[in-house]
Design a protein that fits this description.
The structure is a homodimer of 357-residue chains. Chain A is 33% helix and 25% strand. With 357 residues, the first copy, chain A, is α/β, with parallel strands linked by helices. At the A-B interface, β2, α2, α4, α5 and β14 of A face β2, α2, α4, α5 and β14 of B.
């Protein structure tokens, strides 16, 4: 797969002469043969999700987990834990670093920094800031001859792919994204900040009736609030006023006020039993007309028991593609839009064509 | 997009030095600037579907329709009709030929022939013969410096992409493909050959109950007959024996005998009113576990009013990608597995990232 100087893939020779960045790529220690050497940067829910995904990838190995915490306080499933400040001394030993920090505080700083020395993957999901993040990472990666895949995961990521194919194959149409049923961390945090709330989770749910109308081919104009409703489960502090808490939730601007919101008060035992997972999912629907009155519907759906484990799995596959494309000489910033699907899969191209086409 | 010597795309420079095939590519007349020049080879339902799709593509133009019939007997929506034997004299004037013949008789011969002179796209869908067809096309295309994308459409094609991403993102799991509700041309033809049948259509339908169990996360082992049932609408010849026709249908080996088959007899007027469209669709479902007991479901669905118009739309987008990738120096055979999604879309990469990621 990572043949010297040429990435022969799917029968197409991408490079007939040595790729210009190939020598420098070798200096960086790209694994031309053998397993793809991966490091995880940040060991929260997402970092653990990536670690679990790598256990399914026989062509990849997890070399180390880097952390800002004291390494001796971090327990992995087996990989050595290393202080993040030591990362630069690993140049030449790692093919791809998977940045598992948060979009709010970490990735905008960390991904360009890591791209100075390593190929890198991140899950940057602040849609409004993606163009700026892409530009910053692209400049650094091009200057240093590395390859950086940003904004991978499920949305942005898998859902972005669904949107792009919908646009490609049905250029005249409308695209709808519905999120849920799924846990929203941001909305859960907002509820937890209300006085009297001990524990809380918020689930985003699609408005099923409107989604079914769209799936049946209707072109509706819907606001976000017409596409989603909100379901909250709260454990109250001893003596807290349930009505006041409910009122504080349903009237909260932006977060809840525009939405149909259902508030449920439950016991601490029920909370522990039913609400500690991190499910998520949703739907991307493209309704197009190829000729007037001829309606074509493309629909993608995810139903995830664990958001961080699926996101981690997409990041692991993305790291595989980055290692292969970097070895073939690619540099700069990319997204999943720029990755041939075959590059994400462990199976070789002939097997993929024979059994999966 | 088709910048000279380098395909700068998604921030990644695929070629930092002139691509080796680029000069020869220019000799073949690849449109470096301006619209992508497309020809349709074969003007049946699929050819007309491609023609309709190209009407939505402002970056592409349909230069000619090639046919084996007498050109004066073929009426297009506007493109000139040319005898197929004249195709070689169009070298240098066409960027991509879209082969719209049938898999049973035409494409195995035509696609290698066309690839001697032109970049080409086909919808070859005989799964068992794909490896041999790929090898034959790849050898010719590499020898002549052309690029050929085979087996595009909805299945193989869009559904193949769904299967590949499912495999990439959930490597431990099972993949299920359900076809329908949709018109099967082969099964309709088989019914029409029965004595006493004047008109007939056959719809393939997924066995809804089994599909819902899988969507709920169950891993079932299902035969094709457990995944699909068959629904037939027949207009009888005057005086034909309905019971004999029904018996001939439901006992037909391979085609109907293994399946739950429903046979309906209708009038010629009902047939004309309700059964002359070519709807199709189906579902690709990947059920995976990222850790034991943590189930993740990836589900893709198509609901198509017109199979040939959607297939034509996928072929048109594929032709766009082929023109761009050929201009960047790619040669040989490829499938949609080898195409970065951004190459299929008319929008430029920055717009795609900003609005569709």
């Amino acid at each position: 797969m990572l043949a010297s100087g040429a990435l022969a893939h799917g029968g197409i020779t991408l490079f007939s002469s040595p790729a210009p960045r190939f020598a420098e790529t070798e200096e960086r220690g790209i694994a031309i043969m053998g397993k793809i050497r991966v490091a995880i940067n940040g060991y929260g829910n997402l970092g653990r999700g990536v670690e679990k995904a790598l256990a399914h990838a026989e062509d990849m190995e997890l070399l180390a987990v880097f952390t800002r915490r004291a390494p001796e306080t971090v327990v992995t499933a087996g990989a050595p834990v290393v202080a993040l400040r030591e990362l630069p001394s690993w140049v030449g030993k790692i093919d791809v670093v998977i940045n598992c920090g948060g979009s709010a505080t970490d990735l905008e700083t960390q991904t360009p920094q890591v791209a100075e020395h390593f190929n890198v993957v991140d899950s940057f999901d602040n849609h409004a800031h993606i163009p700026a993040h892409f530009a910053a990472v692209d400049a650094t990666a091009k200057e240093h001859g590395t390859l950086a895949l940003i904004s991978s995961g499920w949305d942005p990521g898998f859902f972005s792919l669904q949107r792009a194919y919908g646009l490609a194959f049905l250029p005249a149409g409308e695209t709808y994204t519905f999120w849920g049923p799924g846990l929203s961390q941001g909305h859960s945090d907002a509820v937890r900040r209300i006085s009297g709330v001990k524990h809380a989770v918020q689930y985003t749910l699609p408005v099923e009736e409107n989604m079914q109308r769209i799936l049946a081919g209707e072109k509706l104009e819907l606001s976000t609030a017409e596409k989603h409703r909100r379901q909250v489960f709260v454990v109250l502090e001893e003596g807290a006023d349930a009505d006041a808490v409910r009122e504080a939730i349903v009237t909260m601007p932006d977060y809840f006020a525009p939405y149909e919101t259902e508030v449920n008060f439950i016991s601490e035992a029920e909370f522990a039993r039913d609400h500690t997972g991190m499910p998520h999912g949703g739907h991307v629907i493209r309704i197009g007309e190829t000729t007037p009155g001829t309606t074509q519907v493309v629909h993608g759906e995810l139903k995830l028991d664990s958001n961080p484990e699926f996101t981690g799995s997409v990041l692991a596959a993305s790291a595989r593609a980055v290692a292969r494309m970097a070895a073939a000489g690619a540099t700069g910033a990319i997204t999943l839009f720029d990755v041939p699907p075959a590059q994400l899969v462990a199976a070789d191209p002939a097997e993929l064509r024979q059994h999966w086409l």
